[in-house]
Amino acid sequence: MTLEQLEEELPNGLHDAQIRSITRNFENDTLTLEVRILTGLYDDPPEKRSAYRNGSITFIGVKVFVIETPDASSAFLARGAVYFIASRTEPGSIPAQVVAKLAPGNNMYSFFILDWHSNIHLAALDMTFGWQHE
After folding, report:
1. The pTM is what?
2. Is the pLDDT of residue 51 over 90?
């Protein structure tokens, strides 16, 4: 699965999604983002329009994981989940020497953390998504 495929499957894509936590497992090369996904739709009754549901995005075969330093003028000191915008990583965001060492088939993604004004970058072979039972 790719991030683009996940966005197509979700009711609102990753619009207004939040990262609740990040877990990086170096022994099995995974990274899990616990996320809060907006599931309410514009046409829903008012009490359901802002509905969120928790899920997990797990990246498999992770070889690169970088968290940029937050902008000092941002709200990085605030506690709580952070809003993000996900995209493919722009060339130059990860040093070319590192990218050249990656096996073919790696997907590189960036998560711009709105609350920090900085990015999280990663390279992984695959990913899965699942809803958390609440």
Report:
1. 0.93
2. yes
